[in-house]
Amino acid sequence: MDPVVVAGGAMTPFNRRKDGSSWRDWARNTFVAALADADLERQDIDVLIVASESDFFTLQLNPASVLADDLALFGKQVMRVEGGGASGHLAVQAATMQVLSGQADRVAVVGVEALASHLPGATVSKLYGLSFDAWTDGMTGIDSTALYALSAMAFQARTGADENDFAAVAVRNRDNARLNEFAHLPLASSVDEVLSSPIIAAPYHRLDCSPLSDGAACIILGRGSGLPDAARDRARLVGIGAANDRVRLGERSDPGHFGSKRIAAGRALAGAGWAHTDIDIAEVYDSYSGAQLQAIEGLGLSADVIADERAGRFDAQGDLPINLSGGLLGQGAPVGATGVAQVLAIARQLEGRYWGRTPSRTPLRGLVDTHGGIATLCAVSILEAP
Amino acid sequence: MKRQLTLEYAFEFGALEPYYSAVARGVALASVCEQCGYAAFPARILCPKCASSYIKWKPLLGRAQIVHRTTGPKHEFALVRFDGADTQTVVRLHTMPPHASHGWLIVPRDDLIGLWLGAAASDAGKED
Question: How many Cα atoms within 13 Å fall on the side-chain side of residue A24?
């Protein structure tokens, strides 16, 4: 059976738009660019899957129908996938299943979010209080940062990780982002600068947090004779897995452990026929600096994540480079687009076409990790070089 | 161009109404599984341990041990375990001393029926 390939893709800059453009422009532009990258025409697309976290951010219910119309896709199968922060990645996985099932030959995934320029930051923060259990945790008025902070403290208590470890992640990811033309926060910074930035919710400082971004990303999945020659010789999506955890931190056996990532990664790796040790490069969900370390541990990519972090294993020169795009901390986080852009980044790295920082060793196998909630809905995909 | 929308959302809590009515009074009402005895607070309509739907209500003392505490410029929150509960939960802290090890459930201080923890048992069931 022919493998599913990432036939093409594109993304907009992730940032706070000040140019008068709209989320519908960003979605359309990435779709057109992805088609060109795959050497396809719009009529070649069988299915459109839209990823968008919240209608509050677009002020548009049923956005998939509107975007299909904007993209001049008619008589097609059109749907929207939502899973909080994992929306974009889950949409990619839904597209993969469409292709694998034979329902479609070519599927376009458009992820988009207007998080930065349309609503005041305080309003977005209040809305995010509804993205956990709105009847319990959300009823306290807690925000995302404070909830992640409580999980991070449990992680610190168990592993010995400290604020310096967290800050080092933020510094490195934003340094990686300096080579990424699409990045929201490309910064040369220091651990001291992170630790001296204002406290949002201890142990997290402002620079430990990913930004609210506007942006869109699109990839086209397909396989076999349904693709042009150039698009067939692209990165292969060889394993997908997803798993959920209990919504409320207080009901987890260890509130600091992202346990459902281990299940999702196990499923994805089993599909690919690989082991954790086969992974050469990864993009993981670093909504907060400490969450990156929790993700690496949860995924099973390190037996001692703190020792590996301090030893530089996750640097571009290390044996498992992570978030060379800058991750959410550096590249930015327009939620619906985030997972799509993560998959695009790993695909381009494996194809040798990545636009930003590349690892010192040519990667052959990559992992993408995204989650919604506090690692509540987790999606992991495995890609391999063409 | 800007457009302003206002939402007024009417919550109905269904099977969990006894729990929310109690929280609104500053009273901790746990759900206890009749199959395995697991006590959940906040209350659940299914047992978090065995998924049984056979639960009964059990008032707790309202005292909670603070497990982790996060402080921000405006608010403080904590992960706590209420005495008599098998689960932990997130609470909002209300004028708690910096090194307090425990606190008491108090009447919510805003229009949300969330769990608030105060420093003294005498605060329980009272509003400011």
Answer: 13
